[in-house]
Design a protein that fits this description.
By secondary structure, the chain is α/β, with parallel strands linked by helices. The chain contains seven helices and twelve strands.
Length: 218
């Protein structure tokens, strides 16, 4: 159920290293670009798990038989940090439809928080493959809540939950709260520690702030 792409040696881990590195993170353009490249590579790996059909393709010199992707894909992401990650996957699944969800942590004075969903735009999911992506999988609660909101009316054929960095606790939460017949988990790395404030350690910090600038505190 869990696919950790960081466990295999490849250039993928170079991009993971750069988005973690405080010496590199100051360059927002490079941070966004690395998220985009990670998204593209993760989409490529997921593509190996999808449905294909041998199709005759006419070339100038004859006919080539080529396996062509048959799965209808919906790429869903959580604003705002997920945008470059989503774009990287869209660069690979260029015929995919897209869904966008606005979700954030509503902090209380005692340090606790609730996940708030304020906006969602999505296509019909009937008989489609849903790829739900968020750069950080911390507690797993926002991923779970977002998934339930997306499939409120129609369930997809299958769902891929995708994160760049996950906590071990978040992965276990997803495994306990999702059926493996309905979803699989794809991550770039799994970190052991999750703080009381639900930040992944060593993690990489706030992906949204690193991609687009620090939010104003209210």
């Amino acid at each position: 159920m869990v696919h950790n792409l960081g466990e295999t040696n490849s250039i993928f881990n170079q991009f993971i290293a750069e988005i973690r590195d405080v010496k590199v993170q100051g360059d927002m353009l490079r941070f966004r670009r690395n998220l985009e490249r990670i998204g593209a590579l993760m989409a490529y790996e997921i593509s190996k798990d999808l449905d294909y059909e041998i199709t005759d393709i006419q070339t100038p010199l004859g006919v080539a038989k080529v396996p062509i992707l048959q799965s209808n894909i919906v790429l869903a992401t959580i604003l705002r940090a997920g945008l470059p990650f989503h774009q990287g996957m869209l660069n690979v699944f260029d015929k995919a439809e897209s869904a966008f969800i606005s979700a954030y942590r509503k902090h209380n004075k005692d340090g606790s928080f609730k996940i708030k969903l304020e906006y969602m735009a999505k296509p019909n999911l009937k008989d489609k493959i849903l790829i739900l992506a968020d750069p950080m999988l911390a507690t797993g609660a926002s991923m779970h809540l977002t998934y339930k909101a997306i499939i409120d009316e129609v369930k997809p054929k299958f769902t891929y939950l995708v994160a760049v960095i996950a906590s071990a606790e978040g992965v276990e939460y997803v495994k306990k709260n999702f059926s493996k017949s309905e979803v699989s988990i794809w991550v770039g790395a799994i970190d052991d520690e999750l703080t009381a404030q639900a930040y992944i350690v060593p993690g990489l910090g706030d992906a949204g702030d690193l991609a687009y600038g620090k939010k104003e505190d209210k």
